[in-house]
Amino acid sequence: MNAALEHPTTVQGLQRHKSPAAILRRLLKNRYVLYLVSISGLLLIWHFSAVNFATSKYMPTPWMVLKELWRIAHENLAGKDLLGHLWSSLHRVLIGFAIGSAVGVPLGLFMALNRYINNLVKPVFDLIKPMPPISWISLAILWFGIGEESKVFIIAIGAFVPALINSYNGIRLVDPALYDAIRMLGANRWQTMMEVTFPAGFPALFAGLQISLSVAWSCVLAAELVSARSGMGFLIILGMTMSNPSMILSGMVVIAVTAYLITVVLSKVEKWVCPWKVELPQ
Amino acid sequence: MTGPPAREVKVEVVGLTKKFGDLLVLNDVNFSVAKGEFLAIVGPTGCGKTTFLNLLSKLIPASEGQILIDGSEADPKTHNLAFVFQEPSSLPWLTVSQNVEFGMLIKGVPPGERERRLRSILDIVGLADCANLFPNQISASMEQRVAVSRAFATNPDLLLMDEPYGQLDVKLRFYLEDELLKLWRELGATVIFVTHNIEEAIYVAERILVLTNKPTSVKAEIHVDLPRPRSFIDEAFIDIRRQVTDLIRWW
């Protein structure tokens, strides 16, 4: 037997350590415990309100939504299963995002680097900027029909604005001290641009692309809610016409999870392309 | 005034004058710096020290007068100038060693030579251990050492330093000043070191120029012929300090 354990103060110390309050304190310090409490709390409140309130006819329980998710993942809905619809939406997002940023980023860069271009483009851009991308939808349908083009157009407009603003600001807000430093070393204009302007503006530019992508994701849903034969927005509308709230909610869950995964992937990419933004753990 | 034996003149400043509109900031400044000399410039706060350095480095044009390096008009494109700023100015996206190498890269130093100088400087300043860290992962004093190393690595004709250690605590300053002297001795650079700290100036410099208040001109020139390492409690040191302090105090 360990002599130390028999010593009264030591035993008391161990007992104090095991008291319920101490255990609770330790549990509360672990953030994953609180995460779990938070999520299960939401599910519980959801479940009980779905079961007990009058609107429960249109409010499925979490379990029903989960079952519905399983069903639509394996069943053919208007020619596609869940993954097929998800891919339709993602496909539109990627095309629209590519077009929007391919126009927005270079335009923002040119505006930041050349004041003639800036003075030419800025007034028009300032008019377009505050318009919600969705407000273009009716025009887009009249112009391009209800096919892919009108949706891609909305997404491209949505992605274009943050891509331009951030690449513009990224270049404009470069620390002037960095310019002094490189000019003192006798750098020419080209070297200044390649060695200071672009690398210094890159994090802001990348942040703009992240915003663009999340805007693109919300634009695709809005566009699909208006008119579509596939995609996550279409699934939600399908759930509504079939009076199937479980289907609507499962669609919403998939949308949220996808958006979350996109953010996670992008922050990983950011760490990879801008390793110098990462601080050492203290 | 009697100076050390005549040395080859590296930098010559003739009648340098700067006006911002009607405001006369620098008035007919004349002095020269010998090759390999360590010159400190002290002056009262707000006397235009930074304007003075910006003129020397050609960041801003002079109103009148000339700055000659090796007999021809100074030009950052042809002469090899280097500047260490008050604020740390390392590029955040480059590692410590890439930052030190950066100046040489811009100046077009060939790769083999670049590598050799990089190694020797990192060794001298003891940054070899953190060569692969980024500036936001090191302390402010280390960042300033990176800037100093970057400047020395370019083998400059003239190295201008604008209160490089002004923001660091006293103990660290002494340490970095010793390191600076070591770099200067080993690489034989010509240095103009601007500071408002009189002790710092006496500690590092071979010669001190004292500036007047605005409009700035050179008020006096003091040779510091003390053996190194210098001591702050040495009588000769204190004597020079008193001399410089009086020059700055009485207009």
Report on the structure:
The complex is a heterodimer of chains A (282) and B (251). By secondary structure, chain A is mostly helical. Chain A has helices at residues 3-6, 8-17, 20-29, 31-52, 62-74, 82-113, 115-128, 137-144, 148-172, 176-184, 189-226, 232-241, 245-273. In chain A, helix 10 packs antiparallel against helix 11 (189-226) and helix 11 runs antiparallel to helix 13. The longest helix of chain A has 38 residues, at 189-226. Chain A is flat. By secondary structure, chain B is an alpha/beta fold. Chain B has one domain: 3-Layer(aba) Sandwich (Rossmann fold). Chain B is 35% helix and 25% strand. Chain B has helices at 49-56, 96-107, 111-125, 140-153, 170-187, 198-204, 235-249; strands at 9-20, 23-34, 38-42, 64-69, 72-73, 81-84, 158-162, 191-195, 207-211, 218-223. Chain B has a 6-stranded mixed β-sheet with strand order 6-7-8-3-9-10, with helices on both faces. In chain B, strands 2-1-4-5 form a 4-stranded antiparallel β-sheet, covered by helices on one side. The longest helix of chain B is centred in the C-terminal third of the chain and has 18 residues, at 170-187. The A-B interface holds A 177-178, 180-187, 191, 195-196, 199-200, 202, 274-280 and B 57, 59, 76-77, 80-83, 85, 87, 89, 91-95, 102-103, 106-107, 133-137, 147, 154.
Give the key terms:
heterodimer; A: 282 residues; mainly alpha; MetI-like fold; 13 helices; flat; B: 251 residues; alpha/beta
Quick overview:
The complex is a heterodimer of chains A (282) and B (251). Chain A is mainly α. Chain A has 13 helices and no strands.
Topology record:
The complex is a heterodimer of chains A (282) and B (251).
Chain A (H helix, E strand, L loop, with lengths): L2 H4 L1 H10 L2 H10 L1 H22 L9 H13 L7 H32 L1 H14 L8 H8 L3 H25 L3 H9 L4 H38 L5 H10 L3 H29 L9
Helix pairs in contact in A: 5-13, 6-7, 6-9, 6-11, 6-12, 8-9, 9-11, 10-11, 11-12, 11-13, 12-13
Chain B lengths: L8 E12 L2 E12 L3 E5 L6 H8 L7 E6 L2 E2 L7 E4 L11 H12 L3 H15 L14 H14 L4 E5 L7 H18 L3 E5 L2 H7 L2 E5 L6 E6 L11 H15 L2
Parallel strand pairs in B: 3-8, 3-9, 6-7, 7-8
Antiparallel strand pairs in B: 1-2, 1-4, 4-5, 9-10
